[in-house]
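Re: that chain you flagged

S.,

Sorry for the slow reply, it's been a week of failed gels. I finally had a moment to sit down with the sequence you sent. For the record, here it is as I used it:
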Amino acid sequence: MEHASSPSSAPLLAFGVVGLDTLRTPAGEAAGALGGSAPYAALGARYFHPHVCMPGAVGDDFPREYAEGLRTSGIDLSGLETRRGATFAWEAEYEENTDRRRTIATRYGTLENWRPRLPAAMRRAGCILCTNATPALQLSMLAQCSRSAFVLADFMESWIRSNRDEVEQVIARADLVLMNEEEARAFAASRDALAAAERTLAMGPRWFVLKQGSGGATLLHQEEDGRLRIFRCPAWPLRRIVDPTGAGDSFMGALGGWAASHSPGENPDWEEMKRGTAAAAVVGAAACESFGAAALLRTPRGEIMRRLRVFADMTGWTFADGKSI
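Prediction finished late last night. Pasting the structure tokens below so you have them in one place:
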């Protein structure tokens, strides 16, 4: 796997749920697909970062070929625990408009009463992808890590409504928060998703990504002088969506991987974050081309970079510093 030419030497940590998904979409259905927020984020990040770690917990039913596929893709699984019992499992059905879905069942399995124990090397991560998991698990993981890391945090609406205090604690630690429009409205109690994003920035994070599904994404950045910068990124045009489940997590991973490799540290460069958002849009779309994480496992970095160049040409983007993608 190729990577960016001058990446940060510190590892990137992709923390979240590792699971098995049963899915029904307009394109068909699949059972026991590799899923969970962490694999999507880790595979998205590894396009741009050479050392991606994926701690977590799975059951003894977790397919060996999934673990081998992740390792072959360059993901460090030294922090992935195998526990007796069943792997986290999620079952859902998507409507004809694949931006909408219905959860049928969630079985936590080995994640019940589990707390992460990170290897020493992972605690020194320069970038942390705090992907969707219970806020308690997110906080337990963050407490073990360096406070100098650049932290990206993601949530889902149910945690925002039921675990508000813990969600706010995670946001207080985060440098960049990602939410979709419904999550942002619920968190900030606003009908206007963009205004909700601005209210969240006022709570401490310097960066916010408003995920808008087939409508793309919006990157917001609060400068030290209070000035708000906004970058609107369209979605990569997919001819056929097979399974949109991991699009947001893959987006997050690619953005974190790009930032950590091209502009490491606590204060990433605005232009690089714009490029990272574009790269994330392309990677997030690629995740939709198969059930589970299969498309990310088989799509090489060269193809992702080819699509990103097409994306830039298609949209007519130019960057203020004149650098090419």
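What I noticed first: Residues 1-7 have pLDDT under 50 and may be disordered.

Talk soon,
D.
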